Amino acid sequence: MEQGFVYIDEAAKGIRWDAKYATWDNFTGKPVEGYASNRIVGTEALGKGIAKAQEMASSLGYGLLLWDGYRPSRAVESFLHWAGQPEQEEAKQRYYPNIHKADLIRKGYIAERSAHSRGGTVDLTLYNKMSGELVPMGGGFDFMDVRSHHDAGEVSPKEAENRRLLRSIMEASGFVAYPCEWWHYTLKEEPYPDTYFNFPVE
To answer: Which run of H or E residues covers position 167?
Structure first.
């Protein structure tokens, strides 16, 4: 692994994760190039930020579930290649039912260069520590639609409240939100703000 990077589950003990892009359960329908292991990786600073967020969430009765952290540049290239392929109806209905595949890049749902590749960005949600169930957020991970925007009016009041709770935890822990995706947060002070890494997650 690149110097200055860590496994987030080692930096934030007890964290839950499900590295979607290392599995078949993602919008491409298969494991993504660069994800050789179902682990979440990030910079040491990301690990410290997640540990702080986890502690705050725990004090409120919640835990954090991570879906992605560091993303190799080769994975971003795979996403761009996928976006240029013919439509697959099953993926469209699950992940982007109201958007043409060709518009996913232009609308900001698929990036030509991803902040994830700098190692300071994470995709995550909350779960209830008592039940273990994910907290309702009004849409799943990688649902590419205005419904996933932080200010979406299509979600219920409770779902909107849950999104605000996650955002308050993350912002208090040194992160900034991405307006189009309620699950996506980047460190305010990234250690490598201009470097896009390409080493695999192993």
So the answer is: helix 157-172
Q: Which two tokens stand for residue 66?
A: 């991570």
The strand ranges marked E within the chain are 5-7, 16-17, 41-43, 62-68, 121-128, 175-178, 181-187
Sign for the pseudo-dihedral over CA of 18, 5, 125, 78? negative
Q: Which sign, positive or negative, has the C-alpha torsion 141, 145, 150, 155?
A: negative
The structure tokens 């409770």 sit at 158
pLDDT in tens, 9-25: 999 999 999 999 999 99
User: Which residue out of 55, 181, 189, 202 is catalytically annotated?
Assistant: 181
Q: How much is the pTM? A: 0.95
Residues 6+ apart with CB under 8 A from 108: 180
Q: Determine the Cα–Cα distance for residues 199 and 170; give it in Å rounded to an integer.
A: 27
Task: Determine how many CB atoms are found less than 10 A away from the CB of residue 103.
Answer: 14
Check pLDDT > 90 for residue 1: no
User: Is residue 112 among the annotated active site residues?
Assistant: no
140, pLDDT greater than 90 = yes
